[in-house]
Amino acid sequence: MSDEEWERFLRESMTGAADAPVEPSARARAVERRLRDGPDRPQGWRTYTPARPPRRTGRYVTGLVAALALLFAGLFPEQVIGWFGGGDGGQDDTPAAAESARPREAPGAEPALRPTLDDPFRGSPAARWADGAAGITVPAARATGWMDAAQVEEALLRSRDFLVAAGLDPRVLRGERPAKAIALLNPHQEDVQRYLRTSLSSARPTEETDPLLLFSRFRPQQTRLVGDVVRTRGRLMYREGKRGAVEVTADVTFVYPVTPAGDGGPDAQVLRTVVRREVVMSWDDPARVVTEPGTLSLLSYTLEVTNGGCSAPTGYFVPPFGAAGEQHTDETRRLDPYDRSKPLAPAGDGCATATRS
User: Fold this and answer.
1) Rounded to an integer, what distance in angstroms lies between the CA atom of residue 117 and that of residue 263?
2) What is d(CA 125, CA 93) in angstroms, rounded to the nearest whole number?
3) What does 85-124 look like in DSSP terms, one character per residue?
4) Which ranges of 220-350 does DSSP label H, i.e. alpha helix?
């Protein structure tokens, strides 16, 4: 061996050869064996595995189910609403708070449910309104004009009695004479007494002598009420009027569920005639005005009606059973009969088209 080869041998013995294999440690050999024998090998952070092509069968099934669901909802909307909203079609039956001031907006939309003989108010805001006189709010009394607080309270209650006798008495609703309401009117108010005589005796009333201006009436041969409940919402207001009188203003909406007269069976058509009335009454000082104790004078009375007929006056409300399209309504004036946020429209504005009933 030459001197050069001997020196290289000694040097490599001290530092090791550049390409000599390195024996792994025992720990490194154990880790390598565990990774090789394990079920899943971890991917390196730069490795990439192509995605599998999507299976289209599930998408087709989902689309078919959605299409069938939409078809069923279109054919049976009331049943679908009932599934998600309870037994009465999802309508909120929480009683509405009494109206103490003019609301700022109309009631919200209700589920589009048809009224039935068993539930004539469903699908309308009246489902949450009070029955009869309970829906007419009477304010607290205070001394006003010629009356002390106790007398004002009595005047307010009698004013409500007049509204009940004129718009809720079952006999009056069947077309009978409104005797109780007339008894509360000042017999010395000649113009009103003349109106009463003409309107209640004429077979062909005019717009000025129509008894519906004050009284709610249906012809029993054509229409009957569904059940014995009329829903109402409104309030009384008062102030001092002329000559110290106590002037009471009533703004009340009445909802009458009706069906054709006779036995129409369980599937009989049910409509709601909605009437909003504004009546201004004066409780006059008997020392200044000729009147009778316990009676009121009428200053004005007007109304707004939907589903009550749009033909010439007959003295009765005429619901359009099976002929909603035959009403001669004014398509340019649309009316939400449950919207009490707006003042009552002046009389003579025509027969508006109701946006809901």
Assistant:
1) 12
2) 9
3) H-TTTT---PPPPP--S--SSPPPP-------SS-TTTTS
4) none
C-beta of residue 297 within 8 angstroms of C-beta of residue 282: yes
The pLDDT tens digits for 170-180 are 999 999 999 99
Give the start-end residues of each E strand in the chain: 130-131, 136-137, 223-225, 231-240, 246-260, 271-283, 297-306, 330-335, 352-354
Residue 302, pLDDT above cutoff 70: yes
CA-CA distance, 129 to 122, in Å (whole number)? 11
Q: Both ends of the chain: CA-CA distance in Å?
A: 119
Count other C-beta atoms under 10 Å from residue 296's C-beta: 25
348 φ/ψ sector (left φ>0, alpha ψ -120 to 50, else beta): left
Whole-angstrom distance, CA of residue 160 vs CA of residue 169: 13
CB 316 within 8 A of CB 175: yes
Q: What is the 3-state secondary structure (H, E, C) of 122-164?
A: CCCHHHHCEEHHHHEECCCCCCECCECHHHHHHHHHHHHHHHH
